[in-house]
Amino acid sequence: MKKSVVFGALTVAGLAAGAAAAGTLDDVKARGKLNCGVTTGLVGFAAPDANGEWLGFDVGICRAVAAAVLGDPKAVEFVPTTGKTRFTALASGEIDLLARNTTWTFSRDVDLKFTFVGVNYYDGQGFMVPKELGVSSAKELDGATVCIQTGTTTELNLADFFRSNNISYEPVPIETNAEAQQQYLAGACDVYTTDASGLAATRATFEDPSAHVLLPEIISKEPLGPLVRHGDDNWGDVVRWSLNALVTAEELGVTSANIGEMAAGTNNPEINRLLGSEGSLGEMLGLDAGWAKNAIMAGGNYGELFEGNIGESTPIGLARGLNAQWTDGGLIYSPPFR
Amino acid sequence: MSDVSFVRTEMLPQQEPPGSSVGVVGWARANLFDGVTNSVLTIVSLILVYFVLEGLLTWTLQSVWNASSLTECREIMTATWGKTHGHACWAVINDRWLQLLYGFYPPYPAEAGVNFGENTGAWPAYFRPNLSFVLLLIAVAPVLFDKVPRKLLIVTAVYPFLMPWLMWGGSIWSPLMAAAGFGIGFLAYRLLTPVIGGLGGIIAAIALPVIWWLFLTGIVAAGLESVVSISIPEVESRKFGGFMLSILIGVVAIGCSLPIGIVLALGRQSDLMIVKTLCVGFIEFIRGVPLITLLFVASVLLNVFLPPGTQFDIILRVLIMVTLFASAYMAEVVRGGLAALPKGQYEGADSLGLNYWQAQRLIIMPQALKISIPGIVSTFIGVFKDTTLVSIIGLLDPLGLSNAIRADAAWNGIYWELFAFIAFLFFVFCFGMSRYSMYLERKLHKGH
């Protein structure tokens, strides 16, 4: 059996080599499923529930794209990837789309040959300290012991920050976030530093979250966004505009609750173009007219996704901050649907 | 002669040993309080054991079983014992134990588009993996214990083809046709050897099945399926996970690595130069590379080499890599056993006029394998525990799932309960293997 599967797979491989030249969009439509790379588990962003259903903010992006392309938010095959396997999984075509809180950096975009289609979460590195330490700014952390994950950009950012402020620190290297929580709670370090969203999620698990404070300094830029392979611009457009549709929907006040009546036609031509009752935007993408409507109905608009998974009503309790709409002073901004 | 005697003429009656040297007291004096140093050590150890057990038992037994989140667990702990430290929140296991055991395997696999709904008919939940596991026990029983009826060996022979069908589903014809490949090989050997000689027969016995598997199996199976359709719903590899995945990888690697390892060990001792070089090269290469590297090759590098869009099952890739890894180690363990046999055994076999395979089967291997039992079982246990490494390439084995469960906002921040549960499961299996190997050694011990 096993051998037959191997050889069968190799034979199929040979046949598939010819077919793979077609675009990702056609592949996804032919397959009837979107292969979406997510993390193996990050609070609020992607995690399976007790029934094996994936939930989370990044998962919401996958479902929106699946709904836009295939009309069914459940037509997603979630492929859990680790920090080490995520880029090869995307490059090799195992997944069509990577939505795994991946920071958009120059080298990943240019050297690794990926296309970041946008930013769905603006993160940045922050600090958490016990309240009893009485520290109100990261600049007062002279001589502190700092729990820091090794081999990450956070380590380099930390060194830069302390050097530019001319203060000293003592690093306590740790491997994973889970280990960091234990070390920090056990008092092995005064400060824990990682992405601010991660700090908030970590603090939410403490027995007494109010005994710990996040310092106001954010010392790095971590724009997280979905990415696709270089070279398939048509597919990149589909993912980019699916994300933009969610953002625009929030800006225009289209929610999963009122989308039914709005789709019938409104006085606002941009809403009409977005939801397909006017113009032919879907056709230009190679999708049907209701693509954006399906994407928004999958999990709600950007704001609904945010509030439902990581917002202030959830245990993680992240404020919108930089991730507010541009009209509210944030950075979330979509080009117009025209 | 006077009546005075200086030597007692009759034996004294036997007396009970003093109360201080028998029973519990005697045992304790002899073993625990034998001198000052030992007494002090005993008391210190007892105190230590007490503190460890006190903490551990309280943590394990005074625990919360019913809660929907860590926060709720903590509330219950505070309400019951006034503090949250030192009490386990087993509610996470209660909530997720099915996931930790079976991963995302559907309890009632169904064809796409068929909705069984809540009422799922006659089959119990997780029927297929459970049946596979029970059949596994039945299949290995005649191999492990000689008191079991020999007829069960039929199950053993069928199991390698039945298990993949049960687990992955699909048409019954694929495993049947794969099994037919072995029949073709056997027939080729039997029918062609008289015609084209021994070597030609062996080559044909290898080449024909390979051709069969490569080019014909799929077509024939599909053809038969279209005539007589017998199939069960398919389950994708992505759905596999949890302890089921560990057992699957472990069992396949263990089951395949022993025969492959024996062949490699024999090949390494062979006089045929090409065979020997191939075997040595394979063993040394695989042993020289960490398992995690092989897993990365399986998950990452193969993707780059294979044509884009290839769907080469990730679990299958991992199975192959782990099996190769285990085989290389097994080969060296078996070679150790072979090397330990005195030369006289080989010469004795020769003097009886046995040919190479007869000598191996009747004289060499039974002794060599017996010597190697502890090493073989160690390798088995090591391979089984190494299956947890697959979490690094994104497969959700128990350790990978523990991370995924922690990523649920309800259970974020829970560690020890998950790890304790996983450790317990692994311990049960590894301890079982270890005890079996001791039983086998005792049974095979011939007292010389």
> H/E order of the elements of chain B?
HHHHHHEHEHHHHHHHH
Number of domains of chain B: 3
Q: Which structural class fits the helix and strand makeup of chain A? A: alpha/beta
How would you sum up the global shape of chain B? flat
End-to-end separation of chain A in angstroms reads 55 Å
Radius of gyration of chain B: 30 Å
CATH architecture of the largest domain in chain B: Orthogonal Bundle
The averaged pLDDT of chain B comes out at 88
What is the CATH-assigned architecture of the largest domain in chain A?
A: 3-Layer(aba) Sandwich
Helix content of chain B: 55-70%
SSE layout and pairings?
The complex is a heterodimer of chains A (338) and B (448).
Chain A: H1 2-19, H2 24-31, E1 34-39, E2 47-48, E3 54-55, H3 57-70, E4 76-81, H4 86-91, E5 97-98, H5 106-110, E6 114-116, E7 121-123, E8 125-130, E9 144-149, H6 153-164, E10 169-174, H7 177-185, E11 191-195, H8 196-204, E12 212-214, E13 222-224, E14 227-229, H9 233-252, H10 259-263, H11 269-275, H12 281-285, H13 291-299, H14 302-309
Parallel strand pairs in A: 1-4, 1-5, 9-10, 9-11
Antiparallel strand pairs in A: 2-3, 6-14, 7-13, 8-11, 8-12
Helix pairs in contact in A: 3-9, 3-13, 9-13
Chain B: H1 23-31, H2 36-61, H3 70-81, H4 91-102, H5 127-144, H6 153-168, E1 170-171, H7 173-227, E2 231-232, H8 242-268, H9 273-287, H10 291-305, H11 314-340, H12 343-351, H13 356-386, H14 398-406, H15 416-444
Antiparallel strand pairs in B: 1-2
